[in-house]
Amino acid sequence: MDISAVNALAYEEFEKIFGNVVEKCPIVAAAVWSQCPFKSLTALEDAIFEFIDTLPESGKEGILRCHPDLAGRDLQMGTLTQESREEQSRAGLDALESAERTRMAQLNEEYKARFGFPFVICARMNDKANILRQLSERCQSERAAERARAVEEVKKICHLRLQGLVRTDAPNKL
Ligand SMILES: NC(=O)N[C@H]1NC(=O)NC1=O
């Protein structure tokens, strides 16, 4: 779909299509819909990012808490959202060796105990080795810096999900 088709959507359809561009946070799509029409996909993305940026720190942490653990229980139980399942499997997280899975689970718990929200990273921009390394490094971060870093990762995930939903090329006039 292109941006003019997006702008023609009724609220319910818009929410159905864009409700998970930020994982399990349909309120983001619900909030930006009132800014329709968008002149481009970038304008839609900017509206989403601005909404996130203007949330209080507790709201940003709330968004982070809506994310499933990487290679965690939801992946094992088959209860991930379709988007998250595809992202995690593309990074190889559905095919971890048992030692890797154990290490990932330990670090995920350590991270959550330290910060009170789960480790979030754009899985499609990383492979499993990179994810494990960054998880280990970021466990040592300072809380405010880590929250800001995690929100940047939410935006990368959102950017790629939007790219998968809306065509960015100009309509073919021929
Ligand atoms: N915890 C976490 O980062 N989860 C997310 N990352 C990603 O790319 N998709 C997700 O669901």
Produce a short descriptive summary.
The protein has helices at residues 3-7, 11-18, 26-32, 41-53, 57-65, 73-77, 82-90, 98-115, 128-138, 143-165. The mean pLDDT is 96. α3 packs across α4 and α5 (57-65) crosses α10.
Could you outline the blueprint of secondary structure elements for this entry?
Elements: H1 3-7, H2 11-18, H3 26-32, H4 41-53, H5 57-65, H6 73-77, H7 82-90, H8 98-115, H9 128-138, H10 143-165
Helix pairs in contact: 3-4, 4-10, 5-10, 8-9
Bound molecules: 1-[(4S)-2,5-dioxoimidazolidin-4-yl]urea.
Q: Would you mind describing this structure in some detail?
A:
Catalyzes the stereoselective decarboxylation of 2-oxo-4-hydroxy-4-carboxy-5-ureidoimidazoline (OHCU) to (S)-allantoin. Pathway: Purine metabolism; urate degradation; (S)-allantoin from urate: step 3/3. It comes from Solea senegalensis. With 174 residues, this protein is mostly helical. The chain folds into 2 domains: 3-62, no CATH class; 67-159, UraD-like (Orthogonal Bundle). It contains 10 helices and no strands. The two termini are 18 Å apart. 1-[(4S)-2,5-dioxoimidazolidin-4-yl]urea binds at residues 23, 67-70, 84, 87, 118-124, 157.
Give structural attributes.
single chain; 174 residues; mainly alpha; UraD-like; 2 domains; globular; binds 1-[(4S)-2,5-dioxoimidazolidin-4-yl]urea; EC 4.1.1.97; purine metabolism
